[in-house]
C-alpha cells in the first residue's frame, strides 16, 4: 500500500509540474511534425518501373510451375519483368553486369523436397541490398503456402567479382506497406522524446534531495526498495500517459499509420517508459544533480536514438551492432514490423523486456547503495 | 529508559565525529542536546533515526537495539529535521496524507490525525494551500505536523527554530511544551542556549563529539557556579551602606550603577539576607531584587573555554 501511495503522489507531483509536462508533450509533437513533414519525401514511394529480373530453374515440379504462373500474372508484370535465362552462370553474369537487377533461382528437386516436408529456399541474387523483388517473392510464398513456413526466401547480395554463395539476409518490407515520413517519425521521435522523459525519473530523486523530503521518507518505516519502486511506478505512469497522448495525436491528428496490435503498442510504450524513468533514476542516484543528470540524458539519449536510426536510417555493421545497445531499436522494430509487416517479432519484445529488467535492477542497486 | 545511547562512535574517514557519546532519555521528558555547530548533535540524531550507520557502541529504544529492529523503532519515532522537509508542490493536507500513509495510517484514523495535526500547528485554514506561499514559520510548523501525526513515542527535533521570526519561534516552543504535556517524549537539539533553558528538563552538552556534561539545568549550573550575583534597584544610593556591604567577607565586589547595586559574592553565605538587612537598617527602600543564577552559556564557557556560538 505504501508503494501505491508513493506512486500516486509522485504522479500527482509530476503532473503539477506544468512546465515539464508541456515540454514533454510539445517536444515530440513538434519533432514529429518537423521531421515527419520535412523528410517525408525520403519515405514516399515513387512510381516504380517494372524491374528486370532473371529466372532460372533446375526444378521441374510444382514450385517451378507455380512460380512461372506467378511471374506471368498481370499484377506481377506491373512490377517485375521476368526473363528466363539459359544457365545459372548466364543469369549471374547478367546480374553482375547490371543487365538484370536480380536472379531468381530454383534448385533441382525443390518441389519434391517441399512435398516431402523439407525446408526449401527460393534463392534470389541481387546487387541491390533493398530490392523490392524479395517482398514480391515473399508474397508469392505466402500465397503458395499460406500458413506453411516450409519455404523461405534467401536474400543474397551479389557483389561484382565476388563469390555468389555468400548469403546475406536482407530486411524485407512486405505487402507493399512502406512507412511514410510521418509514420516513421511518429514512432522514432516518440521514443526519442520518451528517452528524454527520463528526466521524470531524475525529478523523482533530486526533487526529494532538494526539499529534504528524502530525510523524512528514509526515516519512515518503509523499506528503501519500496520507495524506489513507488517512485519508479509513479514516474513511469506519468511518462506512459504522455506517450499514449502523443501516440493518439500522431494517429488521429497527424493521420500516421499506426494500425498495429493495440496490446503490443501499449506494452512497448509501457516498457519503454519504464526503461526511460529507471535510466533517469540511476543517473540521479549517481550524480545527485538534476543538471548533470539532464545533460547526461541529452547526450546518451541522442546517441541511443542515433544508433537506432531515430534521426535517419543508418547502415553498417558497426552501427547495427551498436543499435542493439539502444532500447529504441527493440521498441521501433517491434512496432514497425507489427504495423507495417503485420508480424509479431518475439525477439524484439524479449529484448525490450530484458532491457527493462536490467535497467530496473540497476536502479535498485544504485538506489540502495546511495541510501546506505 | 525510552532511549539509551551507550559509547556511540561514528567516524567519517579519519575524522571522529562521535567519540563514545553516552546519554539516556527518560519517558516524558524534554531532553536537550546542546552544543555548537559541528559538535555531533545532528550525527547523533541521524543515527537514532536510522539514517546513518554507526561504527561502535549501541543505541537502544525501549530496550531494543535499533539496528536489529529498524522498522519497529522507526514507527515510534517522529522526526523534525533541521531542514524543512515538506513537498512544496503538495498542499499542507496532502503532505500530511502522504507521510501519514508512510506510517501506516489509513481511512478515518488518518483523516482524524491530519485534522488534529493541522489544528495543533495552527494550519487548519491553510490546509488546501501549497507551502510555496507559506512563511518560514508556517513551513516549520508543517514540518512539525508531519512528524507528530502518527503519535510517535519519541519526537526528535533537530534545531526546529533555525531561521524563523521570534513570534513563530515562541509558537513552536509553546507547541513543544504542549506536546510534552500531552505525554510525548522529546529530544531537542539546539545551539540556542535560551531555548534549551526554557523548555528542556534535562540537557546533555555536546562538544567535539563528546558529552562533556549532562543533567538538569540546576545540576549543570551547580557544576560551575561558586558565586551569585544580586542586582538591587534602590530608591537612592547611600555610599556608607555600600562600604558596609563591601566589608562583608563573602562579598567580592559591589558596583553602583545609577540607583542600582550589583553585588557579587560566594554562594551559600546568606548574602541576600545580609545585604537586605543593611539596606533596611539604613532606611533605603528596595524597589526590586534579582538573584542572577549562572546560565548554561556560563557552564559551556567554563567546561570548554569558549562561547557556544564561537
From TrEMBL, chain A:
It comes from Neobacillus novalis. It is found in: Cell membrane. GO terms for cellular component: plasma membrane. Keywords: Cell membrane, Membrane, Transmembrane, Transmembrane helix. Gene3D superfamilies: abc type-2 transporter like domain. The chain crosses the membrane at residues 20-39, 184-206, 227-250, 262-286, 293-312, 349-367. Residues 19-365 form the ABC-2 type transporter transmembrane domain. It comes from the Bacteria. It is a multi-pass membrane protein. The keyword Transmembrane applies. Pfam families: ABC2_membrane_3. One of its GO terms (molecular function) is ABC-type transporter activity. This is ABC transporter permease. Its main location: membrane. The keyword Aminoacyl-tRNA synthetase does not apply.
From TrEMBL, chain B:
It comes from the Bacteria. InterPro entries: AAA+_ATPase (IPR003593), ABC_transporter-like_ATP-bd (IPR003439), ABC_transporter-like_CS (IPR017871), P-loop_NTPase (IPR027417). The lineage of its organism: Bacteria, Bacillati, Bacillota, Bacilli, Bacillales. Keywords: ATP-binding, Nucleotide-binding. PANTHER family: LINEARMYCIN RESISTANCE ATP-BINDING PROTEIN LNRL. Pfam families: ABC_tran (PF00005). Residues 3-233 form the ABC transporter domain. This is ABC transporter ATP-binding protein. GO terms for molecular function: ATP binding; ATP hydrolysis activity.
